[in-house]
Protein 1
Amino acid sequence: MTGPLLIAHDLRRTFTSGGRRVAALDGVSLAIAPGETLGLVGGSGCGKSTLARVLTRLVAPEAGSIAFMGDDWLALGGGRLRTARRHLQMVFQDPLAAFNPRATVGGVLADALRIHAVVAKAERAGEVARLIDRVGLPSDLLGRSIREISGGQRQRVAIARAIAVRPRLVILDEAVSALDVSVRGRILELLVDLQRETGVGYLFISHDLAVVRAVSHRIAVMAAGRIVEEGPAASVIAAPSSGVLKDLIGAVPRLNGKPA
Amino acid sequence: MTVLASIADLSVTYRRAPRAALSGLSLDIKAGEILAIIGESGSGKSTLARAIAGLLPERTNVAGRIDWPGLDGAPRAGRDIGYVFQDPGSSLNPVLRLGEQVGEGARRHLGLDRRAGEMEAVRLLGRVHLPEPERIARAYPHQLSGGQRQRVAIAEAIAARPRLLIADEVTSALDVLVQAAIVELLVELVRADGMTLVFVTHDLALASGIADRVAVMAGGRLVEVGPAAEVVAAPRATETAALIAAHIDLATPPLVGGAP
Amino acid sequence: MSFLRRLVSSPTGALGMVLLGVIAATALLAPWLSPGDPLRIAGPALLPPFTDPALPFGTDRLGRDVLAGLLHGARTSLIVGLAAAAAAVLIGSVVGTIAGFAGRLVDEALMRVVDAFQIVPGFLLALAFVSVAGGSLGTVILAIALSAWAQPARLVRAEVLSIRERDYVAAARVIGMHPLEIAFKEILPNALPPVLALAAVIVAAAILTEAALSFLGLGDPNVVTWGSMISEGRNVLRAAPFLSVIPGIGLVAAVLGVYLVSEAAGEALGRGGRP
């Protein structure tokens, strides 16, 4: 397809907190091209999680528009929205909370396949096996409860669930932040591999600039509900213009020395 | 440097657990040093921290000894050791005003009366660089941000002027900007008061920026200990080398190119 | 230790299980322990207990065997108790889930209905229903269920309101799951545990309500129940107190058994359950 995969324009959303109105999104506009990873960084409270929830239609914006795959994303509702959702998936920060406590690994994947009839019923089991293998997990995990497996394994299952329905865009909201350091790198490699293979686009949200830099083509920086800086990953990091980005660069811990 | 605590052959197995959480661990804590304990989840680092502080649950199987040559006798609960937990949300009492909680330690262990305790609480809140400490003293935990709550927890931990401060994954739930600030605060406090700091974390880079010595744990065992710069430059244990290899910072070559 | 072992290891649990076990056994085995119609005339009227080995608990005013009544009455009490509690929990769960999940107007409307059912004292509601609908086992069960469903509804709704905000419900929406499936497959099963604890109390209350309805003569006249036996014995309370006391003891044992087991179950879950 030609043209951007996702265009968000002037999104606004406020919340009342402690009697005050807080602008979680204060006119956010961004665009993601097909097959591209846009990294979104910012400190806590900058609005990046609200943006994720607005893009996935979990929260309604008060103003602004979203065009996804050429359609008016906000205008969809009911059954048409549920069908269209297959192309915009999300991976959450807390892999344990993102699953029904009673779910099994295989059950979670089968549900996703069933809801969107990705393959014929007879082929579902085979597709589940293919998915679990694709994310690097052994097939004997399929019968296990979600609570029995490790955090890294759970996040792989979450990624498998997201790609099971063959989306065009996946939003990753702090997807590796809760994982051990040694596991993070492998999950990031998996995500990049999947992108090369399927051409899926990512919106990679994190407060950890180093992780974002590792996987993003372009980076956008958010602060106080606005995008304050944006551009190709390498150039933005090499020559930051916003104070927020400079602070984020300075806060990245480096081995063998104190952060600059 | 004199030795504050000497741990000899410590083994800990939780009740009804199939495996030991710690086995045969021997380590000295030197007075006045910043010692980082590094490990992934399940390595036993939090168990070690709790064992040192005497915070293990009842009926936990403990073998080996911890001697305190740097103190006169065994450490007094709440007095000689300050403990800061990972989740400030659950270590602060949600129904008590912050000034009361912070002042409690000072009142009890320094023998201050109510009025003096209140003033000391305000002083401590200012010491951890919270703005408007009088207002914060009257506030409740839910009114503060995560980073602010962690500062309060630190203030509470140092209220009784302990010799040893243990920070157990205190930055893991915070974003990088706040993380850097909290770490800076801890270093400032311990250097000013001559406290010993045991800093438990999964982030080797973060630790290597502040620690004098680094102790690396894996699978309940201590696999390496030594000066921070040496351990990072020339790791002897495979687990340490793996942690170093898994580290991602802005200098790490990215996994993607400039465009999809 | 498995859940069952923990359950019987405490004195509360052990005693409760024994009581319930005995009652359940008699309920199941009644047709074999005491064959024939318990309402038939078995001997001379008002025979005191322990005088005739064939009629160990004596007979009532019409000469019916008290022991047979006790054994068969256990069936009625347990059947009504369990069925009514199950119906109350089922109705309450469905209403509570819909209210909690749909929110806003639907929630408001359903909660006003729940309010209405809670304001009327449960027993009077059951009484009124049975008076109008006639006394049969089915209407008695329905009447008790109607008097008891409001509390499970509130409990389920509260749980659903909390679970609705969790990440896995958001994940289900993002995947495109139909709202009905989310409500009944993702949320409701996770909302049930507190309701199941309440269910035990509802069983006990149902047994007592059934006894009270039968006592007032509003139950099923073709079935022997402990309540009707107590009512029968009322007329000769001074001369033959055993006619009311014996089924009364049966009721106490049943209700006590249910409470003890639910207490012990709660403890057993609490101690071993959470990580």
Note: Chain B touches chain A at residues 40-41, 143, 145-147, 174-180, 202-206, 208-210, 229, 232-233, 242-244, 246-252, 254-260 (CB under 8 Å).
Protein 2
Amino acid sequence: MALDRWIALILLGLCLIYGYAAFFTMDGQIPPFMRRNPIWPSTFPKILSVLGVIACLFILFGVEKAQAKEPDIDYRRLHEYKLGQAILLLGLMIAYALALRPLGFLFSTSAFLILGSFILGERKWHIMLPVSIFATFVVWYLVQEVLGIFLRPLPQFLMGVF
Amino acid sequence: MLEGILIGLQTAFSIQNLLVVIGGCLIGTFIGMLPGLGPMSIIAIMIPVAITMGDPSAALILLAGVYYGAIFGGSTSSILLNAPGVAGTVASSFDGYPMAQQGKAGKALTIAAIASFSGGTIGAILLMIFAPGLSTVALLFHSAEYFALMVVGLSAIAAFAGTGQVAKAMIMTLLGLIMATVGEGALFPQPRFTMGIMDLQSGFGFVTLAMAMFALPEALFLVLKPKDLKGNEGEIKDLRITRAEARAIAPVIGRQSLQGFFIGVLPGAGATIASFLGYAVERNIATKEEQEEFGKGSIKGLAAPETANNAACTGSFVPLLTLGIPGSGTTAILLGALIALNVTPGPRLMIDAPEVFWAVIMSMFIGNLVLLILNLPLIPYIAKVLSIPRNYLIPFILFFTLMGAYIGQNNATELLILVGFGICATALKFADYPLAPLLIGFILGGMMENNFSRSMQLYDGIGFIWERPMTLGLLVIAAILIILPSYRTRIARRKAEGVADGD
């Protein structure tokens, strides 16, 4: 089965869960006075879930034949592309998300930029380090001073020291 | 109207807004030139900046400038490298790249700049003429019609998605609507579908979703499949065009400005369709000898898509500014940004906030002018951005998407949601699901449900559908829009299979 139909199957499951919640679990919470209302919080989701299920079934049963066309990236040959780099970068983004608060903006961002170029195969440290650190400071200055949004610059344990 | 124009000029010509429009155009050109980064990603990245500026006119001017710049930059990389940065400029590479190969890159860029300028300017004039009229009509609409109109808009987006894509576009739209129901609705103070997670109480963040849908997958695609950016490294010179050439492209520009604008107004049919259609139309009506030249460096073949895509970009502002309904992914992002700034686009916009409405239109003129004067002489230098190594570029793109989501919410959980959705969006992109309908559905979802609920309450049930003829008519149109394309592909398939047509 092609990937688009697998995805349709997953989406069908999502729509069914969503529909189940809308049809069977939500209405119990409505206060009695709202029951006379023609519209309930669950009305719109009910319609959406039904339509969603229909559309998913359309794709699953291949009612509408898609024209074969050359995709930008063929997922069947994904391993031939630089999949490792992409996964490492995604991991790096997650690490950045987790490190941003505890380690502070300046450290995590410069580390993110340096490691990002490192993963992509850059080895010229004498360019990489200054570019990343300079960019980090510029962005921090712009966000903190110009836009006025607080970004904790230093790690948590150092914040009180300065 | 004159009063409005003056208000607009006053707002648009403040020092701050002039700087904003110039900055926006430059940023847009720079990033739009990079192959693989479309206007939607760039605008998504710029939203946090626009929102923190606090002034709705300045924010919209900035984002519109970025939008124009991105389209313009996209055509530059189409012409120089045959690597369009934006889908809307793919048609420009058909004739632009052959011209560059013949050593006429400078001329091609000049024609592109002039065509873009004329398309954008004529589009803005048409917008000035049509938008006020349309918004007077729109004031007659009730919530029932609004609901029906949104249904029409969303089905048109699905219908224009292309053959074999209608069901996919529809499910993406529905997914967007479903995601919009997460969190507290406006009419009901009761959290829905949050699964008990506190962070979802206020729903998904719109900026996060925009980044996850566009910027992140595009960046990941760049990582997965490095595009070869080695193009013609030659000097870009001889920017002048002759009088005869100017005379040849003038009618093309005139026709394509009109056609592109009206295609842009239609929901779902944006700059991409306008540019391809413009190219096809001009090739068909050209003389025999000229037809031979198309695809080999015809100036008409370059002027047509360039004019059409810029006019269509302007046209797509019509439904946004008059009805408050975005017709494309880009205008959907603009709508989201405006709502975040407490401005609700729609028929009341011209009355409630004329300075926003007219300033945007005026800034379109200024933006086009800026692109023409600033970019034409600077193009050889700006094109240098194409030589930034991707090892530096990609980490920065990823960092800006993360930063955008973080600044908007000031919440690190948002970053995890961003990465999660980004992965889902990349998988969807692999399977050729269109992503723009999801975001449009997400943005329209809240409004659609509110209008639907209001009309349900007024008519005590779904009676409003048949009691209001206009609503019924619009809903019928929506149904036709969905059914027609699948019916037509079915007929085409039957014919292709050689099976006789039944009645």
Note: The radius of gyration of chain B is 22 Å.
